[in-house]
Predict the structure.
Amino acid sequence: MRSAWRVLGVFCLIGLVATACGSGSTAQQKLQGGKAVWAEAPNATPNYIFPLTSGGYFSVANLSQFQFLMYRPLYWFGDNGTVKLNSSLSPAKDPVYSNGGTTVTITLKGWKWSDGTTITSRDIEFWLNLLKANKAHWAAYVPGGFPDNVVSASYPNDMTAVLTLDKKYGSYFYTYNELSQISPIPQHVWDKTSASGSIGDYDRNSEADGQAVYTFLDGESKKIDQYTTSPLWQVVDGPWKLKSMTSDGAVAMVPNPAYSGPVKPTLAEFDEVPEATDTAEFNVLRSGGLDYGYIPTQDADQRGSLSKYTFSPWVGWSINYIQENFNNADHGAVYKQLYFRQAMQHLIDQDGYIKNIDKGFGIADYGPVPTKPDNSFADSFEKKNPYPFDVNAAKKLLSDNGWTVNPGGVSVCSKPGTGTGQCGDGVKAGQKADFKAMYATGTKVQEDEFKAMASDFSKAGINLTITGAPFNTVITDAFGGTATADIDFWGGGWIFAPDYYPTGDEIFSTGAGSNGGAYSNATNDTNTVATTTSDDVSTLATYQDFLAKDLPVMWFPVLPSQLTMAKNTLHGWDPQDPLLQLYPENWYFTAS
Amino acid sequence: MAQSLVVVIGVTVITFVLTRLLPGGVARAILGPHASPPDIAQFNHDYGLDLPWPQQYLNYLWELLHGNLGFSYHLNETVVQLLSTHLPRTLILLSISTLLALVVAVPLGIMQAVRRNKLEDYFFTSVSFALYSMPPFWLALILIIWFASPPANLLPPQGPQGDISTYLDWDQMSGLILPVASLALVTIALFSRYMRSSTLDNLVQDYVRTARAKGVSNAGVLYRHVLRNALIPIITLLGLSLPGIFSGALITEAIFNYPGMGLLFWNSAQTRDYPVLLGVTVVVAVATVVGNLLADVFYAAVDPRVRVTG
């Protein structure tokens, strides 16, 4: 009898296992359809659809997380969580450089617009003509850069565009930072000057006509409530098209059935929802109302209680730094001394801040090229810390260069002059190491980091009088070009998008538009030019190693773009793209 | 009327100057760290921000007279469009919560006055004080934790996100319950305290004694004689709250992610979106003036002594 029960028990066990396995495979089965809801960051809502974007709308929210879903750039960057050209997702084949690097040939793959028309070189020409006629309105325009460096463009057939450049450029630089910005747009639908006007070749006629077309399209892009009804925006080439949108930034997208790319959407709908604050977003997340959201860093310890979600920090392709103003009337001369900058860098305890304040999610930054996610651009030197946290080393640098160090007080230059052991050019006797530093409020962990840094600085007698201010106030101070700005930390550093090759020509070169601190070094300028003109990636190593040592700014830990929480039933979102682009066409749900 | 116009114009002048005095330029705020000096110059030129302040103000006033409140730098919409989408949402939220507060607070206040120093009076007084002393954000968070988080998950943790035409759908309507409750609870506490003390004041008046002497029932005294007089302070409060109904409940809207006027104003202040700030301020200024006017009219309706004569 007992053995009969045993046999029965074994059968039951086998049955249970089989049932569990069976239900498991059903649970993990890829479901067709479904709606995924993704949370936008506070105050980062999309509001501009036309992919020739002016400064006010040139944001990650508008480009990477909105326009690109509907209008694919000619060359797609981002491949399985790394920063590189993704040939399979690009509507064009890899560019071919010839004539010593002065000619670029672009060949289209023959993908289709959603109305069935083929994407042709005319669509590239249309975009380029509009850009040339309206370059002052294009956010990415830098005098002398794209499209000024295109001497001529020809279109030998429907599938080919040939650009002749004004000189040789490095293929990495030109592909990653210039061609990356081109977006074919449907000339057969958009080349007109009014809603009721007929389609023409206005962009080819004259610059004035090109401006009229741009004015019309820009104006239509300012009618958010008409995005889903205007015939203009119904023709797309990306995997998604708009279903609805509000001026608050609530977006609903549905698959574009005519998308020619390799991965077609599985989801039936993808929604982006605006969130007023981190707290509001977290409330919705806790209730399970989001499929893909984030947990505020200060609440990160609570992530374990959200068992229905998977946690994953989303690291952007960015660097972080604190900017000194080399033109500051009182302290500029001090900042120009390399030993002083080295002393300050020695007083930044990046590892300590990451461990104790960032809850372990920060990433140490020792130079001008992002080290995370892992990439082939950051070299080994930059990944080591040339100036590790060392208060004694900082004090020694100051005392060896003519400063009387007063830990806890204010150090003073006691040996002015340019000789060995003296404070350096322009630093006067009695000059105090007493600076004003402004930091952006809003991200608590960064505020705490900055306050900790000020405390560490005082250990070597460098007094920072710190002031918190809104982000906008800090960046105005930092980039306003005044002699009163001193030390500024806006928290966001620099993200390399859509200029993906991290050359720094816009931030650290002498006179560069976003070189707010006015750092200037001839060696760096030469190194930077080499990164833009050479095909050799080693020029980037030379550039970054020099700046890691020369400290144009104070390097500071990078925070992840967000601490992602994605529902366990949502798949295909990992790895997250360092360029902060979304790939909902890869996403799908499973039952559990 | 002329006085009201002067007030509104005065508000526009002050707001205009204050927005220009805010630290941090609008162009940099909108364009971000990547913007080059030519970008900044182009932006300022496009929006007339490179003109002298007086000229900027006159241009603004001229457009205002033509019904044009400007164009939002940040939200890519005209201010009129933004107001037309955000104001109705705020009106719905604040009107429902104020109405609910009135419906509960007026009888509650009367009951407490009639049952003065009885158990129920002590109980509701304690509840009122507790609610009134609660910071609105704290009350809102408590409501979310109790009703909109696991394990309860009874209601949505955020306000309705769709167009107001969809508010009759349960999905949307249920989103209004918690924000309305968090606003109404605090307002009930306030109104009921005023109503209680106002009723108490009136219950000892001569006209009440006379009415009782003439044989009017308790209910008749309360609802026919006391109520109208006791409502006067509530009308004052309502008149004063009208601007708030238009300007929105910033904290509640932010916590419940409800895209009303308060949130619009807050976001615009953070992004230096001057046209929106000015537009909202003008609307609130007009609402304030109208609110005071309406309060005066209602005083006259409920209290014949303040009616204008001759």
About this structure: The mean pLDDT of chain B is 86. Chain B is about 75% helix and 0% strand. Residues 79-114 of chain B form the longest helix (36 residues).
